[in-house]
Amino acid sequence: MRIGEFATAEGGAVGSMRDGKLDQKFLLQGDDDSPNNYLLNVGLTGSGGWGTPRHRHNFDQIRYVLKGRYPAAPHKIMDEGSVAYFPESVHYGPQDRPEGLEMMVIQFGGASGAGFLSTPRREAANEALKAKGEFKSGVFTWVDEKGQKHNMDGAAACYEEATGRKMVLAKPRYDDVIMMDPDSYDWIETGRPGVYSKLLGTFTERNTKMSFIKVEAGATYNTGSRSQVDVLFMSKGNITVEGKTYGDKTALELTPSDAPVDIKANEESLFFVVTLPKF
Q1: What is the pTM of this model?
Q2: How many CA atoms lie within 13 A of 65 on its CB side?
Q3: Distance, CA of 114 to CA of 66 (rounded, Å)
Q4: DSSP percent split of the chain into helix, strand, coil, nearest 5
Q5: Other CB atoms closer than 10 Å to residue 105's CB: what's the count?
Q6: Are 210 and 231 in contact (CB under 8 A)?
Q7: Measured distance CA(262)–CA(250) in Å, rounded
Q8: Which of 40-54, 65-79, 151-165 has the lowest mean pLDDT?
Q9: Which of 182, 172, 177 is nearest to 273 (CA)?
Q10: What Cα–Cα distance (Å) separates residue 153 from each residue in 94, 219, 261?
Q11: For the segment 155-184, what is each residue's pLDDT rounded down to a tens digit?
């Protein structure tokens, strides 16, 4: 088990391949060489907002709005508390994040097995590309040795610079972003006193899942065993794990090799759970 806390997590601003100001805290990161590599961050949009053109990625993303409203596209608005699944290869945007928007985002390798490029590698590529071209409005522009001008999506340009490979996008498994309103789901008893769950959905042939767990004050949630990696994000509450106390915006990684552990809720605590694809 690994635990990341918001207060002590490393942070930084999103690179200049996009427009505006977006500060992030990186709570947990996976293994760069694994198809299950991931990054869980909490982002806060700064002065002037932050935007991207319409684009797509070769990895999966899940967003959970903590504060404010998020326009994922002109007619797709996520309200506070809502969740959305952005599958690999599916277009979304243009997005225009307003100042003050706070959102948890987890990016991870999708069902195709293409993996996820880590933030350090992406930002190193970003810096290298700025030496030969320019990022503007989410697009990387450069002039080749023959004097010909080229435009490429900024994220794709960083991927190709970092890996030395063309970005290959799998055939989309879905035709659009999948948006979910957790308030429309009922809490289900788990058989453990004071512990309730909501399964939002299961996706792709690799069994990617999104759910919530609520633990009432004084109750204990035992993590049990699992066959896939679970990443938990506590959006509110206060817990004690193995003698240490944690507050809200704490993330926990549980792998199939981790032993069961007790999570005691010192006050009502809410966890958003992402089960990563099974490879």
Answers
A1: 0.89
A2: 23
A3: 29
A4: 10, 50, 40
A5: 15
A6: no
A7: 16
A8: 40-54
A9: 182
A10: 12, 48, 43
A11: 889 989 998 989 889 999 999 999 999 999
Q: At 163, give phi and psi (nearest 5°).
A: -100, -20
CB 265 within 8 A of CB 250: no
How many Å apart are CA 41 and CA 58, to the nearest integer?
Answer: 18
Cis peptide before 94 (omega within 30 of 0): yes
- C-alpha 192/C-alpha 123 separation (Å) is 44
> How far is the C-alpha of 247 from the C-alpha of 266, rounded, in Å?
10
What is the arithmetic mean of pLDDT over 33-56? 86
Edge-to-edge strands, sheet with 149-153: 133-136, 139-143, 149-153
Of the candidates 41, 13, 175, which has an alpha carbon nearest to the alpha carbon of residue 108?
41
End-to-end CA distance of the chain: 19
Distance CA 129, CA 168 (A): 20
List residues bridging with 50 in a β-sheet.
20, 97
Domain with residues 183-275, CATH architecture: Sandwich (2.60)
How far apart are alpha carbons 19 and 45 in whole angstroms?
11
Which residue, 202, 181, 199, is CA-closest to 82?
A: 181
78, pLDDT greater than 90: yes
Report the C-alpha gap between 211 and 36 in whole angstroms. Answer: 18
Question: Whole-angstrom Cα distance, residue 193 to residue 196?
Answer: 9
The helix/strand/coil state of 160 is helix
Question: Can you read off the two tokens belonging to residue 188?
Answer: 């289900």
